[in-house]
C-alpha cells in the first residue's frame, strides 16, 4: 500500500471521470457534481440511521441494495430534507436526469444532498444546469477529484481528498462534512472509487470494517445528520488485487479522511484525538472515548490549551451504567504526561499548556479493566462554532 500526494490532489482511478458546475444551489461557485465509471461497477454503501433521513438517502438506499452503483450525483447547500412528497419527486428527477445524461439505468445512480434542511430544491436552475450538461455531452466530464470535493462543500473550509494504491490499482476518496456530525452509520458524505477488481461481498465487508475504525469514531458536535452517506464503487479496470491488502488500504484511506474532517470541524482550531485502553471491550472503550471527545467542557479546555484533567474525569464519570469502571484504576494523560492519578507540578502543567497549543492534542485514558481499546477523533469548541451555526441560514 502506498500514499500518493500532490499539490493538485489525487487522480481518478482508471475508468472514472467527473463533472462539476453551478446549479443555483448557492449564489455562485460549483454546487453540483457527478462522478461516473465508464464501465459497470460493483458497490457498497452505508447510510444515516436518522429518523428524518432525507429523500436522497431513501432513494439511494434502494439503489445501493443492488450493489451495482456506477455513478454518484451530489447537490451541495440544500439537504432536501423535510420537504415532503415534492422532495422525493425532486430527488428522483435529479437521478433520472443524471441517468439519462450518462445512458445508464437510474438504479445505478446514487444521490447525495447536503446543506440546509426544510427548503425545496431550486429545480428550475437545476434543470437548466442539466440541460446545458446534456448539450455539452459527457466528453466534458473533466473535473478532478479536488474539484468535486470543493463542489460538495457547505461550511467546510477546505476540500478533503485522499488516495492509496494497492497492487496496480488506485483508490481515491473524497469527503465533506464539518458539522451536524456524529455518525451512527458512516458520516457526512464520503465517496470512494477504485479500479481494483473486488467481489461485491468482499467490498461490502471491507467498507463496513473501514467505517467501524474511522467514520464511526468521529464526532464534532454529537448531532447525526439526516443525509449521511458513504459509498465505494469498484470497476475492476486495473484487475484483481489482494483482498487483505485492499481492505487495509481502504481502512487507511477512510481514517485519513476522518482526520481531515475532524480537524476542519466547524469553528475548530485543533484536532482532538482521544484513546481509551484497558476497557472491557472495544465497544466500551469507544463509548468512553466518545463521552470525552463530545464533552463541551473538555473541548473548550482543549481550545484554551488548559490541561484540566478534572473535566476528563467528569466526562468519564457520567457514564453511570459502566459499573466496572473504578476510579482508583483509571489513568489520564495529556500527550505522554500522566496527570491522574499523578499529581502534576506547576512546572509540568505549564509545559502541558504549551504543548496543547499545537494543532493536534492527544488524550489517553486507561480504565484498568481489560484489553479493549479505541481511538476517536474530534475537535476543540470555539466561539467560531457558535458563530457559524447562529448565522447558518440567515
Characteristic terms for this protein:
single chain; 15 strands; L-amino peptidase D-ALA esterase/amidase; Ubiquitin-like (UB roll); six-stranded mixed beta sheet; 34% helix; alpha+beta; globular; 394 residues; five-stranded mixed beta sheet
Structural write-up:
With 394 residues, the chain is of the alpha+beta class. It folds into 2 domains: 2-262, 4-Layer Sandwich (L-amino peptidase D-ALA esterase/amidase), CATH 3.60.70; 271-390, ArgJ beta chain, C-terminal domain (Ubiquitin-like (UB roll), Roll). Helices cover 34% and strands 26% of the residues. The protein has a 6-stranded mixed beta sheet, with helices on both faces. The protein has a 5-stranded mixed beta sheet with strand order 13-12-14-11-15. A 4-stranded mixed beta sheet has the order 2-3-5-6, sandwiched between helices. Helix 2 (84-102) runs parallel beside helix 3 (123-136). The longest helix has 21 residues, at 243-263. The mean pLDDT is 91.
Assess the beta-strand content as a share of residues: 25-35%
Rg of Cα set:
22 Å
What is the name of the CATH class of the largest domain?
A: Alpha Beta
Helix percentage: 25-40%
SSE string, helices as H and strands as E: EEEEHEHEHHEEEHEHEHHHEEHEEH
- Placed side by side, the strands forming the largest sheet appear as 1-7-8-9-10-4
Largest sheet: 6 strands, mixed
Summarize the topology.
Layout: E1 2-3, E2 16-21, E3 32-37, E4 42-47, H1 55-64, E5 71-78, H2 84-102, E6 109-116, H3 123-136, H4 145-152, E7 160-166, E8 169-176, E9 189-197, H5 200-212, E10 229-240, H6 243-263, E11 271-279, H7 282-293, H8 296-303, H9 309-317, E12 331-334, E13 337-340, H10 346-355, E14 360-366, E15 372-379, H11 383-390
Parallel strand pairs: 5-6, 9-10, 11-14
Antiparallel strand pairs: 1-7, 2-3, 3-5, 4-10, 7-8, 8-9, 11-15, 12-13, 12-14
Helix pairs in contact: 2-3, 5-6
Amino acid at each position: 500500500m502506498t500514499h500518493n500526494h500532490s499539490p493538485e490532489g489525487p487522480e481518478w482511478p482508471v475508468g472514472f471521470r467527473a463533472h462539476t458546475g453551478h446549479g443555483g444551489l448557492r449564489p455562485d461557485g460549483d454546487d453540483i457534481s457527478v462522478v461516473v465509471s465508464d464501465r459497470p461497477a460493483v458497490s457498497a454503501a452505508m447510510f444515516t440511521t436518522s429518523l428524518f433521513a432525507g429523500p436522497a438517502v431513501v432513494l439511494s438506499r434502494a439503489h445501493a441494495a443492488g450493489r451495482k452503483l456506477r455513478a454518484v450525483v451530489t447537490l451541495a447547500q440544500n439537504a432536501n430534507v423535510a420537504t415532503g412528497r415534492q422532495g422525493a419527486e425532486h430527488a428522483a428527477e435529479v437521478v433520472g436526469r443524471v441517468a439519462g445524461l450518462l445512458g445508464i439505468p437510474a438504479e445505478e445512480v446514487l444521490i447525495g444532498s447536503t446543506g440546509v434542511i426544510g427548503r425545496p430544491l431550486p429545480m428550475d436552475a437545476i434543470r437548466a444546469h442539466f440541460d446545458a450538461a446534456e448539450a455539452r455531452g459527457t466528453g466534458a466530464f473533466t473535473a478532478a477529484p479536488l474539484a468535486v470535493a470543493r463542489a460538495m462543500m457547505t461550511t467546510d473550509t477546505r476540500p478533503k481528498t485522499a488516495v492509496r494504491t494497492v497492487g496496480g490499482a488506485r483508490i481515491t476518496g473524497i469527503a465533506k462534512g464539518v458539522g451536524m456530525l456524529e455518525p451512527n452509520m458512516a458520516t457526512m458524505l464520503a465517496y470512494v472509487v477504485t479500479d481494483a477488481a473486488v467481489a461485491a461481498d468482499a467490498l461490502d465487508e471491507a467498507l463496513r470494517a473501514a467505517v467501524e475504525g474511522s467514520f464511526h469514531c468521529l464526532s464534532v458536535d454529537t448531532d447525526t445528520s439526516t443525509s449521511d452517506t458513504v459509498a465505494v464503487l469498484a470497476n475492476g479496470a486495473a484487475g484483481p488485487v489482494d483482498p487483505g491488502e485492499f481492505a487495509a488500504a481502504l481502512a487507511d484511506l477512510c481514517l485519513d479522511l476522518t482526520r481531515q474532517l475532524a480537524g476542519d470541524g466547524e469553528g475548530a482550531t485543533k484536532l482532538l484525538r482521544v484513546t481509551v485502553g484497558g476497557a472491557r471491550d472495544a465497544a466500551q472503550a469507544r463509548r468512553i472515548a466518545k463521552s470525552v471527545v463530545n464533552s463541551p467542557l473538555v473541548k473548550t479546555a482543549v481550545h484554551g490549551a488548559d490541561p484540566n484533567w478534572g473535566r476528563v474525569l467528569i466526562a468519564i464519570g457520567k457514564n453511570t451504567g459502566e459499573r466496572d469502571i473504578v476510579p482508583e484504576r483509571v489513568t489520564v494523560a495529556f500527550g505522554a504526561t500522566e496527570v491522574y492519578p499523578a499529581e502534576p507540578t506547576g512546572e509540568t502543567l505549564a509545559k502541558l499548556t504549551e504543548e496543547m497549543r499545537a494543532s493536534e492534542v492527544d488524550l489517553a485514558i486507561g480504565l484498568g479493566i481489560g484489553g479493549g481499546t479505541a481511538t476517536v477523533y474530534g475537535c476543540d469548541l470555539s466561539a467560531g462554532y457558535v458563530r457559524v451555526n447562529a448565522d447558518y441560514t440567515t
